[in-house]
Specification:
This protein is an all-beta fold. The protein has no helices and 18 strands.
């Protein structure tokens, strides 16, 4: 870890706080590692989130929330390509011989995700059709969660302006009677910018893709793949992204983003 000098950036909105603090940066990263098992025909609540690449090399994303019962998927999903989004109910979905096949329809538009799947990941192909634009084909890769988080209505809009990311650091004194000292520190993310197309940029150079399910986003590629953020309104009422430490630890307990909960808000 580098010892960076403290920096004063003025006022930063952080949840219910809006004070002047010293900020410091730290550079650490720990990957997320999962263990897989075959899916069963009555797996129950399940979610798929991941990225796709079409035949022209353009990126996209997909997110599906469903229930797997008697070998059939029932639920809703979203497939985002470089040109269009297909969002709707699963009209046909099934598990067979270790492969998942899911079709989402919205009017005449539809999209299909299929491929080898287990309790940890899915890898395969996608095909979408959008009236007036024709079909797109390509590859998909994503994560599977068999204990799906409850979906929430997307009441809070996605923040698409550049957000400043900080966390509340603490310094413990080993001298008797001295209290813990708290200060704000720059997040390892530095800053965060999200786009409606499912792309994110952290800091000045790190880029990747994310998917949104309800009030949560999951970064699914790039340096911060695996991090989960909650979309909430900050003290001023503006959309913000919070990476709660309880949701952002690896299997060994190490943090995926920062050592404490990270708040990404609009600078004021």
């Amino acid at each position: 870890m580098h010892n960076w000098p403290s920096i004063v950036l003025g006022e930063v909105a952080l949840g219910k706080f809006g004070l002047r603090y010293h900020l410091a940066a730290f550079l650490t990263l720990f990957p997320l590692v999962g263990q897989s098992a075959p899916l069963t025909p009555n797996e129950g609540a399940i979610s798929f989130i991941g990225t796709l690449t079409d035949g022209d090399g353009k990126p996209g994303s997909f997110a599906i929330e469903a229930e797997l019962k008697d070998g059939d998927f029932i639920g809703r999903g979203r497939i985002v390509t470089s040109d269009h989004t297909v969002r709707g109910d699963i009209t046909q979905g099934f598990l067979e011989n270790g492969r998942c096949s899911i079709r989402i329809e919205s009017g005449r538009a539809h999209g299909d995700i299929s491929g080898k799947c287990d309790s940890d990941k899915i890898d395969g192909q996608f095909e979408t059709f959008y009236p007036g634009s024709g079909s797109k084909l390509g590859a998909v890769s994503g994560m599977v969660r068999t204990t799906a988080e409850p979906a929430a209505d997307e009441d809070v809009p996605l923040p698409t302006v550049k957000l400043t990311c900080v966390f509340q650091d603490r310094k413990v004194s080993f001298k008797w009677g001295e209290p813990i000292q708290y200060s704000l520190a720059f997040s390892n993310l530095g800053s965060l910018t999200l786009t409606p197309e499912g792309l994110y940029k952290a800091g000045t150079s790190t880029e990747g893709q994310f998917v949104r399910i309800g009030d949560k986003i999951r970064l699914v590629s790039g340096t911060w793949s695996g991090a989960i953020g909650s979309i909430e309104r900050d003290r001023s009422g503006e959309p913000a992204v919070i990476f709660y430490i309880e949701k952002n630890r690896g299997p060994d307990g190490t943090h995926l983003v920062d050592p404490y909960t990270t708040h990404c808000t609009q600078a004021r």
